[in-house]
Design a protein that fits this description.
Length: 205
């Protein structure tokens, strides 16, 4: 859905590295209601996080680094907590993840959906090549409800892979909101992951 309430994104309480250096499932839950900010050419794009998925490499067959598998693609998962892990799927969609737990543990939280809070006009141009007023009801309903949609709207690509999330370009901040209810379910699109496909590691508002 499209929400255009403006939020001040300067001098805000960013999430620190300590936030990410915790159990991945806790981080995935606690990210709900936090805000993603990406500064693009001086324009702050901001969205409230509404859906996440946890991935834990040491036990999770759905994780790219299951069993501590290191490849050029997965190397970022072994980075310090609070690092952005961006990868491409199907040769066309980017996905943003937040590296969690101590450095060397290949764990991350996938960002699945947000609600636009600031910069929605810019996001609409990125997604559909038109302004908010020109969006159809279908486009509004499906504006930012998927990881690839979020990355396209926020101008996120492999170029941001490895960025420090405690910096000033791509970061998250806490507006002090506490979600009234958090839903839990199976992750999406991982039928290949055997028993891991049934892990209840998706969290959403």
């Amino acid at each position: 859905m499209v929400h255009t309430a403006r939020r001040k994104v300067v001098a805000v309480p960013k999430l620190t590295r300590d936030f990410y250096e915790r159990d991945t499932l806790l981080v995935a839950r606690d990210l709900l209601g936090k805000y993603l900010v990406h500064r693009v050419d001086g324009v702050p794009l901001c969205g409230r996080i509404t859906e996440t998925e946890a991935y834990i490499g040491r036990t999770d067959k759905a994780c790219h680094a299951y069993g501590y598998k290191r490849t050029p693609r997965t190397q970022t998962l072994f980075s310090p907590p609070g690092t952005a892990y961006l990868y491409l799927i199907y040769g066309m969609y980017h996905c943003l993840n937040f590296v969690t737990e101590p450095e060397g543990e290949p764990c991350a939280v996938l960002l699945r959906a947000v609600e636009a809070a600031e910069g929605a006009e810019f996001m609409a141009q990125n997604r559909f090549g038109c302004g908010l007023s020109a969006l159809t009801p279908y486009q509004r309903k499906n504006f930012l409800n998927g990881p690839g949609k979020v990355c396209r709207a926020f101008s996120l690509t492999r170029a941001q892979n490895g960025l420090d999330l405690t910096g000033d370009t791509l970061f998250l901040w806490d507006a002090g909101e506490t979600p009234e209810q958090i839903h839990v379910g199976k992750r999406i699109g991982i039928d290949y992951a055997e028993e891991a496909a049934d892990f209840p590691w998706r969290f959403y508002l």
